[in-house]
Specification:
- The complex is a heterodimer of chains A (312) and B (394).
- Chain A contains ten helices and nine strands.
- Chain A is of the alpha+beta class and 312 residues long.
- Chain A folds into two domains: 249 residues, Alpha-Beta Plaits, CATH 3.30.70.20; 42 residues.
- In chain A, the strands form four sheets. In chain A, strands 8-1-9 form a three-stranded mixed sheet, with helices on one face. A two-stranded antiparallel sheet of chain A has the order 2-3.
- In chain A, 41% of the residues are buried.
- With 394 residues, chain B is mainly α.
- Chain B has a single domain, classed as Formate dehydrogenase/DMSO reductase domain (Formate dehydrogenase/DMSO reductase fold, Up-down Bundle).
- In chain B, helix 3 packs parallel to helix 14, helix 4 runs antiparallel to helix 5 and helix 5 packs across helix 7.
- The model of chain B has no long low-confidence stretch (mean pLDDT 92).
- The chains are: A alpha+beta (312), B mainly alpha (394).
- At the A-B interface, helix 1, helix 4, helix 5, strand 6 and helix 9 of A face helix 1, helix 2, helix 4, helix 7 and helix 8 of B.
Chain lengths: 312, 394
Amino acid sequence: MKNLNRRNFLKTAAAAGLAISALDSKTVKGADKTLSEDRIGMLIDTANCVGCRHCEWACRVAHNLPTNDLDTYSNTEVFKEYRRPDSHSLTVINEFENEKNPLLPIHVKTQCMHCERPACVSACIVGAFTKHPDGTVTWDTDKCIGCRYCMVACQFQIPTFDYDKAIDPQIRKCDLCFDRRKSGKVPACVDICPNEAIIYGKRSDLLKIAKDRIKRKPDVYIKHIYGEYEVGGTSVLYIAGKNFTELKMPPLGTNPAPGISESIQHGVFAYFVPPVTLYALLGLIMWITKRGKVDELKENNDIQEDEKGENS
Amino acid sequence: MNPAPIKHKFITPGVIILIVIALNGLVFLGLRFIYGLGAVTNLDNYTPWGLWIGVDVAAGVALAAGGFTSAALGHVIHREHYKAIVRPALLTAMLGYTFVAFAVFVDIGRFYYIWHPLIMWNGNSALFEVGICVMIYVSVLYIEFLPIVTERFIGKVKFPNLFKFINKPVDRLLRFLDKSLSKTMFIFIIAGVVLSTLHQSSLGTLMVIAGHKMHPLWQTPILPLLFLLSAVAVGFPMIIFESLLASFSFKMKPEIKILSGLGKMAAPLIGVYLAAKIGDLFIRESFKYIVIFDVPSWMFITEIAIMTRAFFMFLSKKTVNSPSRLFIASSLVIAGVLLNRINNFIIAYNPFNNPAMYYPSIGEISVTFGCIALLVIAYRAIVMIFPVISHEQT
């Protein structure tokens, strides 16, 4: 049903104006150009994940977030409740029932998807988010004003905010260990994963690996790479043995989230032509109606003067 | 009959109640700036925007629309007959937008960076457009208000003894402003109307990017158009509402001639908005969500019912000529648009997996009511100092 809504929504969007859609295609091309052919990503193979949560620990250490000892992460009590990333954890693992093999529950890692056309980058009022040519989406603390529009815009509900701080609250989300990678290392979660459930590499290679795994083990995986086409594609890809909606991942169409809003925005502001035209039009109306009023006044005065003249 | 400061006792029991409400809001405001947003609000990572954005900002901007609709009526198409309402509407818009800007300052996590959008631009962002337009428009509103200040104080600048020496320079400044503004005011008036149409609509574009997180009853690519039309529709009813409230509070005779003229214009404007909204419902075939009868569907039904009732009230001659009926009809339109903004920003927004529905905290409600109380107190003070309201001199 969700998809149906979306289709109707898009149908109206298409009806909203051809001029607008023409502008839209331009912006899409512009955005694609900045992305490198060799852009990187992560493939998360939920069938290989055993839910050891070492990645959660490594992520906190890599991002200087407070954490307990690694030993405490073997506690599986946390799986009782569905968890989301927050301002202290940029990635979390959740456990889901596995109907095919009840002894081997499915574990799903959640973090920023690093969209190919990110809503946060488009929405941010000050441009604090950057989509790097290598595919990473990062956030800049020196720009952010804390308006939280990125959280409204994100289709995966990923950016989190420090609600407990009055001064210097941060928007936090996975940055694919942007700084760590500069020194030639791989992301902390990839590094620590004991089971190769997280594969790091070129997005195009990851897609090949994913397709290969699905082909080789059709009994293990469903035929769907989550992130290949969702919201125009994401840098993080998932394969799983179960429908992704049941793994609490939002069912999304293939159109990028910023598409419609940007086309409206650029339609209204096309080279400032519409606002300037409106200004000129209002000025013209103002001038005409005023002249009308002045003429009326003059006529009235003339009549009065004539009457005076006749009377005298 | 020219605008003149109103002579009335400032402190009344009603004003004392308003001061108490304002102080209560200030206490929670203090807590927000000491302990952060989490201490005062019910916001979380699922619901990043709540009452302050939905009501203080979005509804605030809509309800201040009387400023630009009356400016268009009085100054652009020169309906001299309505000049009497331009000043009160201007004051409402000026105070309303000040309140909106303050609400944004309170709501954003890094309030001390509120100036960032001035130099850090993102042309793709609807919020950037709203922010810049509102910033310029607030300045324009203050400029539009300046002639009222010069009118009041030219030749009457009297600072107490210690500051006597600045009397002359201030008077000269006022005269200079008066002279230069009287020739250039039309630039600002038109700019005000253009800026308003831009940001009133862009406020609707804001939620489009939320995509599937918005309930299909409200999520539509024509949201910007619906926001603009509803803002235009609520402009005159808001002026009627305030004018009647002021007449009641200051025990003056209501300006029924002007108000019924405005009332007659309200029906077609509401009609256009309703037609667009209902037409969109059918084009997107989203009417099927109305018959689910869950919370969003009831909220949508209420919103439409209130606006439709107001539409039919304004259609009848009986309403247009009676102050009490005009007051009820105008209140309905205001309630309808207020509810629409709450629905768009709070009810409709529901991320996948959201475990709990958002409802505002006592702190959020206190701050909102506190700000509204302050606004009313400021309005009262200004109309008693400056020549804003036209009334029979007693």
